[in-house]
Structure to design on (353 residues):
C-alpha cells in the first residue's frame, strides 16, 4: 500500500508557525452532513437606539459617538492595554517571569448601519475600512512605544462578539504577540536562505496546484492553506511581496476590499447565516526595522463545521496533542469556491421568480 494523502492520516506543516496539524481524511468519507438550518432571520434595525456603536449614541463610559456616515474609530473604553503602564519585570530564579506590557486599544465601526456586516457592504464602503486600517496603522505604528499593530475583527456571538454592529478592533503594543514572533521566525529563516518571501514561494505552489484556491483577483489570492486547522479557515495573501498595509497602492486597496467582500459573501452563503469568524491582518512589526522577510496577509478563522450551529471543538487530543481535522483543506476550498458570489439575502427566492 502506498501513502495517499487523500485517504491516509497524515500531519501537515504550517509554514507560517512551524506547528503541525493532524489530517484524518478517511473520517470525512462519511457523507457530507452539512445542512442549512432554520435559524431565526436576522431582523436588526438600521439604527438601534441602545447600541453603543451606532452614530449619535452614548457609549458605556459616557462619551457620545459623532453622527458619522462612513467609518468611525475611538479608543476602547475598556482597553486591555494601557499606554501609561510603567516598565518593569519580575524574575524569581528564572522560574517566575513577568514583563510589563503597554499599548493602545482602538475600536473601529465599519459602517453607521447597525444591520450590515462586511459581506453586505459594497466594495466602496469596505475600501473605506481598508483606508482607516491603513491610517490607524500609520498613526499607531509611528509611535516609539508601539512595535506591533494587530488589526482584527471578532464576528458573531459564537466568537464572543459583544455587539452585532459591524466593528473591529486594533490592539497596538510594545512587544510582539506570540503568533507574530512565530511567523517572523519562519519568514526570516526562508528569506535568509533564499532571498525570497516565503509566501511568494508558497503562493506559486498553490497556483500550480489550484485545489485550495477559493477566490482571487489581480492583487490578492484567498485560499484554504495546506495546513488549515479550522474547517473553513482562509489565508488571504497579497500577490506583491510587501510588508505593511500602508504600502498598498490605490488599486491594491480596491482589490483588497474586493477580495474581502467576495470571500465573506461565500462564507455567509455556506450555511445561509451570518458566518462567525475571527480575522486579522498580519504584517511587519513597526519597530523601525525594514523587515524584508515579512509578507502582508490576513487570516480568517471561522469556527463552524457542519451547519449554522455545529462548530468545531478544539478539545481533547487537540488541547493535549495537536490540532486535528477531518474534512480536508482541498474539500473545504472546493465547497467555498463553488458558492455563488451574490449574498444569500440578495438572491432571489424561487417564489420571487
Ligand atoms: P467585541 O464585540 O469584539 O467584544 O468588541 C467591542 C469592544 O468595544 C470591546 O472591546 C468596547 C469593548 O471594550 N466598548 C467600548 O469601548 N465602549 C463601550 O461603550 C462598549 C464597548
Ligand atoms: Zn449599532
Amino acid at each position: 500500500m502506498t501513502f495517499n494523502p487523500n485517504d491516509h492520516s497524515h500531519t501537515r506543516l504550517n509554514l507560517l508557525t512551524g506547528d503541525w496539524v493532524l489530517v484524518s481524511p478517511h473520517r470525512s468519507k462519511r457523507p457530507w452532513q452539512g445542512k442549512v438550518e432554520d435559524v431565526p432571520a436576522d431582523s436588526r434595525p438600521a439604527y438601534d437606539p441602545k447600541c453603543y456603536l451606532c452614530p449619535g449614541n452614548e457609549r458605556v463610559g459616557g462619551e457620545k459617538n459623532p453622527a458619522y456616515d462612513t467609518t468611525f474609530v475611538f479608543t476602547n473604553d475598556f482597553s486591555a492595554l494601557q499606554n501609561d503602564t510603567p516598565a518593569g519585570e519580575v524574575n524569581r530564579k528564572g522560574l517566575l517571569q513577568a514583563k510589563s506590557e503597554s499599548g493602545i486599544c482602538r475600536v473601529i465601526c465599519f459602517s453607521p448601519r447597525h444591520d450590515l456586516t462586511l459581506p453586505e457592504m459594497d466594495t466602496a464602503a469596505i475600501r473605506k475600512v481598508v483606508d482607516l486600517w491603513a491610517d490607524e496603522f500609520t498613526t499607531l505604528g509611528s509611535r516609539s512605544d508601539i512595535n506591533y499593530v494587530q488589526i482584527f475583527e471578532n464576528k458573531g456571538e459564537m466568537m464572543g462578539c459583544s455587539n452585532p454592529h459591524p466593528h473591529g478592533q486594533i490592539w497596538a503594543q510594545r512587544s510582539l504577540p506570540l503568533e507574530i514572533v512565530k511567523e517572523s521566525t519562519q519568514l526570516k529563516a526562508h528569506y535568509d536562505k533564499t532571498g525570497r518571501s516565503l509566501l511568494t514561494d508558497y503562493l506559486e505552489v498553490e497556483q500550480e496546484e489550484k485545489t485550495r484556491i477559493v477566490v482571487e483577483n489581480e492583487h490578492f489570492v484567498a485560499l484554504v492553506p495546506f495546513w488549515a486547522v479550522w474547517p473553513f479557515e482562509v489565508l488571504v495573501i497579497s500577490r506583491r511581496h510587501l510588508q505593511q498595509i500602508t504600502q498598498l497602492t490605490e488599486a491594491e486597496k480596491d482589490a483588497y476590499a474586493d477580495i474581502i467582500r467576495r470571500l465573506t459573501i461565500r462564507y455567509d452563503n455556506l450555511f445561509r447565516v451570518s458566518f462567525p469568524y475571527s480575522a486579522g491582518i498580519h504584517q511587519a512589526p513597526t519597530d523601525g526595522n525594514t523587515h524584508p522577510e515579512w509578507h502582508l496577509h490576513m487570516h480568517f478563522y471561522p469556527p463552524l463545521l457542519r451547519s449554522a450551529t455545529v462548530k468545531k471543538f478544539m478539545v481533547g487530543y487537540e488541547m493535549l496533542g495537536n490540532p486535528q481535522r477531518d474534512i480536508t483543506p482541498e474539500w473545504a476550498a472546493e465547497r467555498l469556491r463553488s458558492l455563488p458570489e451574490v449574498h444569500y439575502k440578495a438572491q432571489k427566492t424561487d417564489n420571487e421568480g
Residues 250-271 form the longest helix (22 residues).
